[in-house]
Amino acid sequence: MLCTGTGCVAGGAFRIKETLENEIQKQGLEKEISVIITGCNGFCGQGPLLVVQPDEIFYGFLNPEDIPFLVQEHFLKGRPVKKLMFTPPEKKEPIPLLSEIPFFKKQMLVVLRNKGIIDPEKIDDYVARDGYTALEKVLISMTPDEVIDEITRSGLRGRGGAGFPTGTKWKICRTEQKTPKYIICNCDEGDPGAYMDRSVFESDPHTVIEGMILGAYAIGVSRGYIYARTEYPLAIKRMDLAISHARDYGLLGENILGTDFSFNLEIREGSGAFVCGEETSLIHSIEGKGPEPRQRPPFPAEFGIWDCPTVINNVETWANVPVIINRGADWFSKIGTETSKGTKIFSLVGKINNTGLIEVPMGITLREVVYDIGGGIPDDKKFKAVQTGGPSGGCIPYSMIDVPIDYESLTNAGSMMGSGGMIVMDEDTCMVDVAKFFIQFTNDESCGKCTTCRDGSDALLEVLTNITNGNGKEGDLEFLEEAGNAIKDASMCGLGTTLPNPVLSTLKYFRDEYEAHIKESMCPALVCKNLIKYYILPEKCTGCRLCLKNCPPGAIKGELKHIHIIDQSKCTKCGTCLDVCPTKVSAIIKVSGKETEKITGIEEPYPVKRREKEIKK
Amino acid sequence: MTEKVGAVAVLGGGISGMQAALDLAESGLKVYLVDNKPSIGGVMAQLDKTFPTNDCAMCTMAPRLVEIGRHKDIEIITLSDIEKIEGEAGNFKVILNKKPRYLNEEKCTGCGTCITNCPTRNKVQPLEKTKVELEPQYEEKVLEIIKINKDREGPLMAILQQINSAFNYLPENVLKYVSQEVGYPLSHILMIATFYSSFSLVPRGKHVINVCMGTACYVKGSERLMERLSDVLEIKENETTPDMLFTLKSVRCIGCCGLAPAAMIGDNVYGKLSTKDIPGIIEKYKTMG
Fold it and tell me: Do strands A588-592 and A2-3 pair parallel, antiparallel, or not at all (unpaired)?
């Protein structure tokens, strides 16, 4: 089972596949062992990776050079290769079994139940895992109203972020008189740091198709669109293939499975505009109009694409539907909390040991996600915050790490569920810089229709830039709060109303960091370039010339076996010197604020030997 | 109390000019309110709502307009340019150039009937219609793209996407041709073409380098990758190298957050990049050509 999600493909998964097949053939094992390519396994931080079934042995960080050895040892001699297995950073012994690895242990796979098990390019693989049985069940034994009832009872809520109850949305659309009606699958996953939709498309496209067919039957629709980002070429390719397979099997098209129900599906591509993830904007984009959002109501369920009633759901929402039909609303509603049912996929990324895609039941705490599944922060750094909900969300600080993950709790914490990006930040992340990053993003992506969003984000960005440049002044923070709240109140679509969240939440929890920037011209996380300086510690420098050779602007003075000096007037603070300085020397440091005054550098490079003599004295 | 003497000229009849005129007049000065447009009101008269209070613009303006019109000490001089200002504080002389208006201002009520009935204004201007021809290098591909998509619902996006990927940008003449053949106004096509970040109106290099600026990549230092790339290629973001090989861009998350920091060159993803890797990768593409 070789993972071929985008991450592993970038790491050379197809080269590994080739070597693996060659090697197996060389050993004459092609009858016993088959190489199956699968969609994203989820543990992207370990890629390229493969899982040997049925033994369930997990191998990560593979190189084509490792393969001959692996085939010989494992497949021929039956000795799994320890050095390629997953080893948690704090332990010495590797964990061979997939199910024993903490990253997988606490997960609950509903939407991603087929990930890493089936070949996403083969419809038979999906059918073998109970695929399309929900469709059969519905067409034979359930009326559309019963399907909607089932979804309503399951408590499924929109996984795009806002959490609108799916059953209710379907019902509104079903009761609309106007025809034809449409359904749309929203795969315009623009949130930076989130890639669950892409992963679902790449690992199990048929579950989305089945979900959409079920939805179409329940709502009474014969046409559907999938709106996907053009940045996801592999996902689009696999979905396209899946649609044509489903059509060949008579699961899409006219008279599905011999009944008089017909449904057609078509992919439409976006072209790189964040706002198109907003439903009205998405509709305008498909229609070829200017993709600006419009005022709601009327909601798309009443007045959507081509002015007809339209249900738009997120990829993950559609993917939940077949499972609910198959296993029943009662089973589904047992998972999760009072108001948030089922599971949610998160992409756990940033400063964390185990990066990857995880699916967990609602109500799990952030602590479990970060420490048990994520394996904590690398290099023993301190956990600072988790950013959820993309540019619309906020940062949740360490003090709130025991908050359960569900729609309401996250909103109360000043963030939101969003599409499920979860970015972990450690002490080296500057919160003002992060806020600036998000405002830059939304400022860039704002369509410009509402003044508050367009000009308000400009204003926020200007103040934040001033602060990070060391030009912050008294009253800036109050202005950020005031303007932030005004933007929130006066913008029309989701982009504008949630745009100030990153600023407001970091202001709430990390006000001291903002104040340090303004009052002491200091960036506590040592990120903001204008507020930091690089120094070479004379007592540590060995005069190896590495930093001197690599410094892009040539700001380092020195010669071999002489202590080097950074010319502050030339330094562009790119940090290359810090990267190249050997770890055992680590002579280069970053300092900020008052700390800079404490550093007493040397005037001219002098031989390392002289220092040694001085120390001896 | 000293008696107020003299008069004040307020230049510009926008909302601030209007308020200034009113305040001055209220304090007992004679005010000349000058504007180069046919009427006062300025930009605010064109707005629906104002930031940050979201107040209705007309509700803020209308009372002031009425008051100015009624005020005995305010004289409105419209359609006039400032020719010259001389003098010093306390004693200015302003020379205005009043544009002709071809009607008796004393009698005009501003009903607007003359505008609607003006024969010159309402004459239909014949459109200069020249048929757009495609350059030979575009012809075959563009005709094919239009043929495939013309009869779909909402064909414009697909057409633009395919043209963009075929030529790496949207050539101006091709857009004009699409406008003529598919029947969208050119202004609409340009609005769409400039809205999305993956479209380009200028030619781009053979290899488009997209540095991911998603959150995960950002916190892992993708900005520094961008700087290094820009150093190595000697171009800035959104620029193309003179040999037309590389275009440097940033992108909003390519969904490879597990590989942060990442970049895409063409359709190939490079993950877990460090500034040290950059020169090697660029060299590889340079030898490829």
Answer: unpaired
A468 touches chain B (CB under 8 A): no
Report whether pLDDT(A319) > 60: yes
Q: What is the mean pLDDT of chain A?
A: 89
**Which member of A44, A390, A552 has the closest CB to residue B259?**
A44
B270 in contact with A, Cβ within 8 Å: yes
Chain B contact for A115 (CB, 8 A cutoff): no
Cβ-nearest to B157 among A268, A274, A425:
A268
Confidence of residue A149 (pLDDT cuts 50, 70, 90): very high
* CATH class, A531-616 region: alpha beta
Looking at domain A123-334, its CATH class is alpha beta
Distances (CA, A) of B130 to A175, B177, B180, B187, B190: 51, 11, 10, 17, 19
* CATH code of the domain occupying A2-100: 3.40.30.10
Q: Among A190, A306, A349, whose Cβ lies nearest the Cβ of B252?
A: A190
ipTM of the complex: 0.78
Q: Quick one: DSSP state of residue B4?
A: P
B157:A355 CB<8 A = no
Rounded average pLDDT over B68-93: 90
- In chain B, whose CA is at the least distance from the CA of A389? B215
Copy the structure tokens of residue B165.
Answer: 């990927």
pLDDT tens, position by position, A32-49 = 888 888 888 888 888 788
Determine whether domain A431-520 maps to CATH 1.20.1440.230: yes
Mean pLDDT of chain B: 87
Q: Do A357 and B258 touch (CB under 8 A)?
A: yes
A271 in B contact zone (CB under 8 Å): yes
CA dihedral A171, A172, A174, A179 (to 10 degrees): -170
| DSSP per-residue codes, A105-173 | HT---STTTTTTTS-TT-HHHHHHTTTTHHHHHHHHH--HHHHHHHHHHHT-B-TTSS--BHHHHHHHH
- In this structure, the dihedral spanned by the alpha carbons of residues B39, B40, B44 and B46, taken in order and rounded to 10 degrees, is -10
**Which chain A residue lies closest to B230 (C-alpha atoms)?**
A552
| Distance between CA atoms of residues B146 and B143, nearest Å | 5
Do residues B83 and B97 make contact, with C-beta atoms less than 8 angstroms apart? yes
| Total H helices, total E strands in chain B | 11, 11
pLDDT in tens, A391-421: 888 899 999 999 999 989 988 888 888 878 8
Q: Would you list the DSSP string of B82-116?
A: EEEEEEETTEEEEEEEEPP-SS-TTT-----HHHH
List CB contacts (< 8 A) between B260 and chain A.
349-350, 355
Q: Measure B276 CA to nearest chain A CA, in Å.
A: 9
Among B160, B214, B220, the residue with its CB nearest the CB of A192 is B214
pLDDT band (50, 70, 90) for residue A132: very high
Is the preceding peptide bond at A297 cis, omega within 30 degrees of 0? yes
Domain ranges of chain A: 2-100, 123-334, 343-426, 431-520, 531-616
- Are B262 and A10 a contacting pair at CB < 8 A? yes
End-to-end CA distance of chain B: 85
Q: Do A290 and B275 touch (CB under 8 A)?
A: no
What does the pLDDT look like over A562-583, one tens digit per residue?
A: 888 888 888 888 888 888 888 8
Would you state the structure tokens that stand for residue A149, as one six-digit string? 């009832």
Which of A271, A492, A581 best tests the B interface by mutation, with the highest count of B CBs <10 A?
Answer: A271
Class of domain A343-426: alpha beta
Q: Is B195 on the interface with A (CB under 8 A)?
A: yes
Residue A201's pLDDT band, with cuts at 50, 70 and 90, is very high
pLDDT band of residue B128 (cuts 50, 70, 90) is low
Task: Tell me the helix, strand and coil percentages in chain B, rounded to 5.
Answer: 40, 20, 40
